[in-house]
Design brief:
- By secondary structure, the protein is mostly helical.
- About 45% of the residues lie in helices and about 10% in strands.
- It has seven helices and four strands, in the order H-H-H-H-E-E-E-H-H-E-H.
- The strands form two sheets. A two-stranded antiparallel ribbon has the order 1-2. The protein has a two-stranded parallel sheet with strand order 3-4.
- Helix 5 runs parallel beside helix 6.
- The model has no long low-confidence stretch (mean pLDDT about 90).
Length: about 180
């Protein structure tokens, strides 16, 4: 009589999971997963291409638009995980290729700078004037050799008046221009 190997219906890479206690198996099931379907892989290639563009005054931009729960945040998180993690280069310089933030809940220039400083783990005082925070962010971007700024949930910045929306878009453009030209 032939003895059957258990769990042959499960991919060999994941068979050991079937032997874990229920709580650990459920935790594994709930973990986020990257599924590299064709459109997602094309988007990753597009993002990588944008990140590697030669510096110029008018850098190309990309806005990814889609319904809720369609994987936009998962896509940019995977991109950040694959290409944007900070490292130290051969010259002992700190490199942060991609700065990924979630947009602050309102179109506030100061809140945007604070989000960026938080993400870069830099000290700041929220009582500082906006101009000081602005130049702290610009300096940090230059020192860390930031190649790309990714803002998730950018629609949050479009909740104010038309004037506030123009102002916050000008702030983003200013940050990108300052980084790329210098």
């Amino acid at each position: 009589m032939k003895q059957e190997i258990p769990y042959t219906h499960i991919h060999p890479k994941f068979r050991h999971i079937a032997l874990l206690p229920n709580e650990e198996r459920l935790r594994f099931i709930d973990e986020p997963r990257w599924i590299g379907y064709d459109k997602a892989n094309q988007s990753m290639e597009t993002l990588q291409g944008l990140m590697n563009k030669v510096k110029q005054h008018r850098m190309p931009n990309l806005m990814i638009i889609g319904d809720s729960n369609n994987g936009k945040t998962t896509l940019i998180n995977q991109f950040h995980k694959k290409f944007g993690l900070p490292y130290i280069d051969d010259f002992k310089d700190s490199i942060v290729p991609v700065v990924l933030i979630q947009a602050p809940p309102s179109p506030s220039e100061k809140e945007l700078y604070i989000s960026l400083l938080e993400r870069l783990a830099l000290p700041y005082r929220s009582t500082e004037p906006t101009t000081k925070l602005r130049y702290q962010v610009i300096h940090a971007f230059r020192c860390c050799n930031v190649k790309m700024l990714v803002i998730d949930e950018i629609h949050s910045l479009l909740t104010g008046t038309a004037r506030q929306q123009r102002q916050i878009m000008n702030v983003i453009k200013f940050l990108v221009v300052c980084q790329k030209v210098c």
